[in-house]
Design a protein that fits this description.
By secondary structure, the chain is of the alpha/beta class. Helix content is about 45%, strand content about 15%. Strands 2-1-3-4-5 form a 5-stranded parallel β-sheet, with helices on both faces.
């Protein structure tokens, strides 16, 4: 699960997301790829239809859209399907503003959410972003270009957030308590498997090991040879 970030962290992540998205655009990474699966949770059929038309007008990427006209129906879709992004209206008849976002985010913590707002919902939308939403869009200001850009940036930001959280967990693992065999010195990982300490650390960091013999082991293994200097 990806937790909230500070304003500075979110700005930095947004900068990298824009750079990553721009690089992919220059190399055609968004063209003719697997469709981006979008879940729209929106009770107004006209707004939902307009969003579909906006997404259909984008040529560089294909969008696969699922529409739920109620919060509970949207949550059911989340349980039964896999989505790349959620477009969430905060004014659902069976929802309650920010509580709707909280419920969606709790059910799909790793799926980026863009909240859709009416004319007077900006404060609630900003609070949703502070709690983990990737962006908010005012319905009366949405265009095909703006919507497409917001979706792609949100997906990239979410990927970066997940990478940061996974890296943080790995660092904590390396700093924390590690079960190690007293005889062979293998380490037991979080899945219960025993592995060589070099492999364990290398998989979780950028450390590269070089192998040699300490003076004590050299003398034990090769008692008839002269041990090298400590400094060599």
């Amino acid at each position: 699960m990806v937790h909230g970030c500070t304003l500075g962290q979110r700005k930095l992540i947004s900068k990298f997301a824009r750079a990553s998205t721009g690089e992919k655009e220059r190399h055609g990474a968004f063209v003719n790829k697997k469709p981006i699966s979008i879940l729209i949770i929106e009770d107004n059929p006209d707004d939902a239809l307009l969003i579909r038309r906006f997404l259909g007008a984008v040529s560089r990427v294909s969008y696969e859209v699922t529409h739920a006209d109620q919060l509970q129906r949207g949550l059911q879709y989340l349980k039964n399907g896999t989505f790349n992004l959620i477009l969430l209206d905060l004014g659902l008849p069976d929802g309650n503003g920010l509580l709707s976002f909280n419920e969606v985010h709790a059910n799909a913590p790793d799926v980026p959410v863009i909240v859709l707002t009416g004319n007077n919902d900006d404060e609630v939308a900003i609070e949703a972003v502070q709690k983990g939403a990737q962006d908010f869009l005012a319905k009366d200001q949405v265009t095909a270009v703006l919507l497409d850009r917001s979706i792609r940036y949100a997906i990239e930001r979410q990927k970066l957030l997940i990478q940061i959280e996974n890296s943080s967990k790995e660092i904590k693992t390396l700093r924390g308590f590690l079960p190690i065999c007293a005889n062979c010195k293998k380490i037991r990982d979080d899945k219960g498997y025993w592995t060589q300490i070099e492999a364990y650390i290398s998989e979780r960091s950028d450390v590269i090991f070089s192998h040699g013999l300490c003076i004590d082991c050299f003398k034990k293994l090769y008692p008839n040879l002269k041990a090298p200097d400590e400094s060599s």
